[in-house]
């Protein structure tokens, strides 16, 4: 029986890209993809979405009636149900798990790298970030307070915002340090690829490559090829050529993103 699957993702979200890549590489077809705007309209705070995902984060995968709301959990959930895709071979599981662990340990770092660099694009970009991540977010969370069954979730999120301002945090980052820290995982990839293997585990695309593809795409989105070694560049060209790269809407340049179109609209209205 073909499962009924809906993937709620945001185009630019690195974890969403991992989800979409996993869905595509697992061979799932007929999947309904719903984009959730988390940069401009902040649709992750709309009541209908909060009912599905109380943490108000993406990605979320609804597989038949099972809701899976974390990209790492989605990776493992799908491979358990579709082992025939061969993305988690037994002989490489320890190495795959280690690479995935190293990626998720850097999750906060990836956010700092992304928004720290975006904030350097000038006052209009800073205002764009502030509008979505603070002004619209707070307004929508206050609106959620009117729904008794969602009030607790909104209160918890508002309390966190009282303690954390994303734009101020982004502008405080040392970008050179971030480049160095982001390069650590690239260095691990370089070492694995140094023997000439095409992919991280050898000849076969694996869950490690799902994560690495999204990671490389994020670095390319911000820095282009500048942080890639020769081996990583070779790897990057290979994974970009896979059907899943286009099919999963992997965002590797600013122009690829919905955020770019939204920023252009915001920029025009601000002039």
From TrEMBL:
Annotated GO molecular function terms are:
glutathione transferase activity
Ranges of residues in domain GST N-terminal: 3-86
One Pfam family here = GST_N_3
* Alphabetical UniProt keywords: Transferase
Which SUPFAM superfamilies would you find in this protein's record? Answer: GST C-terminal domain-like, Thioredoxin-like
UniProt keyword Transcription present: no
**Family matches, as InterPro entries:** Glutathione-S-Trfase_C_sf, Glutathione_S-Trfase_N, TCHQD, Thioredoxin-like_sf
Q: Does the UniProt entry include the keyword Transferase?
A: yes
User: Could you identify this protein by its name?
Assistant: Glutathione S-transferase
Organism, as annotated: Pseudobacteriovorax antillogorgiicola
Question: What is this organism's lineage?
Answer: Bacteria, Pseudomonadati, Bdellovibrionota, Oligoflexia, Oligoflexales
